[in-house]
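Question thread 4412

I'm putting together a teaching handout and wanted feedback from people who do this every day. The idea is simple: show students a protein as raw sequence, then show them the C-alpha cells that encode its fold, then repeat with a second protein so they can compare. Below is the first pair exactly as I plan to print it.
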Amino acid sequence: MIPAAPEGQPSMVSEPSIGRTSSLMAVASLVSRITGFVRSVLLFTVLGAGVVNDSYTVSNTLPVIVYELLLGGVLSSVMVPLLVRAQGEDDDGGEAYTRRLMTIGGVSLLAATGVAIVAAPLLTRLYLGGSTIANADLATAFAYLLLPQIFFYGVGALVGAVLNSRNAFGAFAWAPVANNVVVLAVLVVYFAMPGEISLDPVRMGDPKLLVLGLGTTLGIIVQAIVLVPAMRTVGFRYRPLWGWDPRLTKAGGLALWALAYVIVGLPGYMITTQVAAAATKGSIAIYNAAWLVLQVPYGVLGVSLLTALMPRMSRAAAEGRLDDVVSDLSLGSRLSAIFLVPISVLITVFGTATGIALFGLRGSNLDSAVLLGATVAFSAFGLLPYAITLLQLRVYYALTDSRTPTWIQLFSLIIRIPMLLLCPVLLRPEDVVLGLAAANGLSFIAGAALGQFLLHRRLGHVRTGEVLSTVGRTLLASLIGMFVVRALVQLLSGPLGQLPPLASAWIQLIAAVVIGGPIIVVVMRLLRVQELTPLIGRLERLVDRGKARRGGPG
C-alpha cells in the first residue's frame, strides 16, 4: 500500500506534468473537435434543418446522452478513483480488481443496451411527446440502428478509465478522431446515393436509412476498438474474471448513484426535445447543432484538462491531501476561465456571423444558419459554468462521493424544467429554441453555484474569491476586445453588406480573432491576470527557439 503523504507534501506516485499532459491532450482534443465539427457541419449541410435531421437527432440522443454523462464524466470518474486505490493497495497492482470490474461492467452494459433496443418505440415517443411536426416512425427506425452504440460507448468508457488511471491519456483522446473519420465517409456515401429517405411510409430497408444509421454506429464501434492496443501498451491484458471482490460493493454503490445521475438528467433532455419538436421543423436539429458548437472550445481545453487532473485529484484524495485537491480545483477553474470566457463573449457578440460562417454553406440553409447562430449566442454564457460544474463533479468522484453530483443534477433540473415549459408560452414558435438554449445556460450557473457552496461546506476554503477575480477580469478584457471589433464592423457595414453573407460572416469572425484576440491578451496583462503568464512564457520560448533556428538574436 502507498503510505499517505503528509499534508501539503508531494505524493510518492510520480505524476506527469499537468501542463505537458494537458497540452498533448489538447492537441488530440483539437483534432477530435475539428473533425467532429466538420462532421456536424456536413451533417447539417446534407440533411438540412428538417424532419430527417430532427428524427436522426432524436434517435441519436439516448446514446449521445450516455456518452456525455458516462464517457464524458460519470463512469470514468467513478472508476478512476477506485482503480487508483486498487493499484496502490493490491499486490498485483489492482489487475484482478480491474478485470472483475470490467467483466461486470461489460455484462451490465450489454443488458442495458438490449433493454434500450427493445424499448426503442417507447423511447422515441417519450422524446417527441405528442408532436405532429416530427416523424415518430422515422425516429424509431433510426433508433433501432443507433441504440447499439450504448454498449460500445460504455466499453470505451471502461477501457478509458483503465488507461487514465495508469496515466495513459493519448489513445483515449485520439479515439474519437477515428469515429469522426468513419462518419464523414458515411455522410459522403449518403450524399452520393440517389433519392431521399422515404417518409411516408418509412421503410426499414431503405438504403439511405441503413447507410446513415449503421454507418453512425460503425463509427462508435471503431472508436472503442482502437483503444485495445493501448491496453497492451500499459501492460494490461484483459481476460474475463468472475467472482466478487468486497470492494466491488462500494463500486456498485457508486455506479448506482452514477446511474441515478443519468436518470435524473433524462427528463430535462426529454422535455427540451418535446418542446423543440412542437415548435417548428428543424428546432431539434438547430438546438443540437448549437450545443455541438459550444462543445468545441470545451472539448479542446475542458476535456483534456479535466482528464489530466482526475488521477492527480484521486491520488491526493486517497492520501488525505485535501489542500492539493482544492488547489487543483482552483487551478482548473481559473484555466478554464481564461480560455472559455473570451470565446463565450466572441460567440455572443458575433453569434449571427458564427452561424452563417459555419452552417450557411448552402443557400437553402441560410435562414436556419442565422437562427442557429442566435441560439449559440443565447447559450454561450453557460459555457464556463458548465465546465466548472464538471470539474466540481470530478472532485466529488475523487472523494468517492457520487451522491452529491446526483443532487446537484436534480437541483439544476428543478431550475431548468419550469423555464423550458415557459418557452412556448412566452415566445413565438420560431424563437422557442432560443429560450431553450438560455434556460440550459441558466441551469448550469445554478448548478455551479450549488456545487461550489457544497464543496466549501465539505472542504473549507475552496478559493472561490480568486476564481471569481480571474473570471471578472477576463470578462472585462473580453468585452473590451470584442466591442472594439464590433465597432469596427459597424464602421465597415457598407462594404461588408455588398459581400455574400458567407464571406461577410467569415471576415467578421477573422477580425474578431486577429484584432480582438490580441486586445484581450493586452488588457488581461494590464489587469494582471496571473494565469496568463505561463501561456505567454511558452509563446515567448517558441519565438526565441524560432529565432535561434534562423540564426537571429536569441
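The second pair follows. I'd like the answer to focus on this one:
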Amino acid sequence: MPEDLVRLRDVGPVDPLQQYDGLFSVSPDGRHAAFQLRRGDPATNGYCLAMLVVDLRTKGRAVVVDRGGDFIRLALDFRGKAGFPTGFADPITPRWSPDGKWIIFRRRDKGAVQLWRAETDGSGSKAITESIDDIDDFRISADGRSVVYATRPGLREAIAAIAKEGRSGFRYDDRFSPASSNRPFPPGPIERTAWILDLASTATREATLDEAALLDKTSMQEGNWTEAKSPAGNRAWVQAPSKTFDASRGRLAVSAGERILSCRAPECADASFPYWMGDKVRFLRREGWENSATALYEWKPGSARARRLYVTEDLFLSCVPTEETLTCLREGSLQPRRLERLDPVSGRRDILFDPNPEFANLRRGRVERLRSRNSFGLESFADLVLPVAYEPGTRYPLVVVQYASRGFLRGGTGDEYPIQAFANRGFAVLSIDKPDAVGLRATTDFREADRINLKGFADRRSVLEAVEAPVRIAIERGIADPARIGITGLSDGSSTAGFALLHSKLFSAYAMSSCCWETNLPVRVGPGAARLFYDMGYPKLTDDSETARAFWREIAISPNAAEIRAPILAQASDDEYWSALQTFTALRELGRPIELFVFPNEHHVKWQPAHRLAVYTRSIDWFDYWLNGVKTPGRAEEIARWEALRQELSTTSHARSTNVSRP
C-alpha cells in the first residue's frame, strides 16, 4: 500500500495546501483538455512525465503528445529571499493555439525551464526557446503568431554575484537562513523581464509594456478567472473587499447596460468564478462547517435570491464551464484526483479521465467526518479513517495526521504519513483540518494577526483543542485505545505536535517531519527573519528574563527535556535538520528516545519518491513498534536501536523515581 500511494499518477500539485487553478486547459472549441500527468518511481527515484490531450466527447480517449523532462519544483520569494527552494510541484499549465492544433507548455531538461510546443494529434513536440533563465510564465497572442514569456535574469545575476563574493567570504547578514542553507540567498523580490517570441521566425526581443500586460490575463479555459461576459456583452464579476486574503472571492455583481446590479442574497457575499448561463449567472462558493463544502449557485440579475444547484464535500479544482456542464478535476476522501464532467442540475457525473483506475481495487478504510468547535469559537473538522478490517467493539491504535483534510486523504500536509497505509496496518487515523488562525478572525493584517496568535500562545492552543476534540470522540466511541495514540506533523503540524508534547496527555508517540521550536530560534532563522519573530513577540537570544524563560517553557523542547518520556521520530531534510539538533542533543543527553534521519537534497517538503517511500514505511513501523510492540521484519538494525532507547528510558525513569523518593 505505501508504494501504491507513492506511485499514484497525478495531475498537478497534490499537497492539500496547493489548490491551484490552471492544472488543465480546455481547447477553444471545448472538445479537448490538455494536462501534464506525473508519476513518481521510488525505484529510480525519479518521475515519469507526459503531456496528454483528452477527447472530452469520448470519455477519456487520451493521446500522449509529449513525454519526458524533469520534475519542476516551485521556488518562492520568502522572508525577503528570492528563489527559496521547495519540494512542491510547480503547476504546469498547457495553453492552446487559437485553432486548437497545438499547445505550448513549460518543460525542464536538466538546464533552464523552456517552452515546448506539441501537436495535439500526437505527431510531435519540440523546444521552441533557448532561454538561459527559467521561464516562469507565458501567454499565446490572440492571433497565435507569437508568445510572450517571463524570466528573471536578475536572479541569475544575483546568484553569480554571490558565487563571486564567496571567493573572499560571505558577509553574514539578512540574506542568510542558516536552517535552510549555508550560503546567502539573493535578496527578493526580483523583477521579471518579459520577452516576445515570434513563432514563425523564432526571433526573440524584449516585450513592450502593452505586450507584457498579456502575462496578467486570466482565462476561463484554464479554470482561472474572476469575471465573465455574456453573449449580450453584460459583465459578471466578484467585488472583492478592499482588505482580503483572496481577491478571487467577493460579492457577485453584474453590469446591465449602464447599471451595476449587486446580488444581495447572503450566498452571493462569498462568490467566486462567475459565468453566464443564458440570462443567469452561476458561481461557486465554499460553505458549511468550516467551509468544508463546495456549492454551485445560480442567480438571475435583479432577483433577491440565489438558487443552489449542487453541493459536495469533494474537492473541485480548475473548473471550466463547458456548455451547461462544468469540467473539473475532482477528488474525494477515498478517490484520487480525476477529470470529471458535472451536470449541476441533474447531478450527473461523467468520468472523462481517471489516471488511477486500479486504485479502486485496493482495500481502503471507511471514512467518517467529525466536526467540533473549540473554546475560541472556531470550527474545524477531522476525517476519521477506520482500520480496513475494523470490528465494532475493538479498540485500535490511532494516529493523527495534520493539518488539512480536503479532497483525497493521501498523506496529510507534505504527504509524509500515508493514511490508507496506516489503515491497512490496523490503525485508525484522524486526518485533521485545522481551524482558521485566531488572529485572522480579528484582523486582515498578517503581522498583527501573528502577534495575536502568539499572545498566550492562543493559536497553538486553538489548534491543539481542534486536534484533541476528535481524538476524544474516537476514544469515547470505543474506537481508539487511549493508551495507544500517536501524532504526526510537518511544518505547522510539527509545531502542533511539539506543543502537544508539552501540553497534552493524549499522545504516546510522535513523528515529525520538521523539528522543533527551540530557544536558538533567532540563530537558526538568520538576522533578517529574527527581526520578524521579535516583532511578533518572541524573546531575543540574550533575553534571560523570567518572562523569556516562561515563554520558552511553553513551547521549546530543551527546557522541558527532563519531563519528556514519549518517543519522537524526526525525519528532516538536509536543508532543515540543523533546527532539530538542540532538541535531539538535549533529549539524548537525558536518555530520552528520539531518532533523527536526514534526507539529502530535500527541502521543507520532500520531493524525491524514494525518500517519500522511506518516510512512509518508517513512520508506520515506528508507530507499530511503540504503540503495538510489533517488530517489523526487514528493519532489524533500527528495531535494535529502538529496543535500546526503550531500555534506556526505562532505566533513566527508574533512577529518577528513586531519586525523587529519597527524603
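Top answer:
Good format. For the second protein you could add a caption like this: Residues 657-663 have pLDDT under 50 and may be disordered. The longest strand covers residues 32-41.
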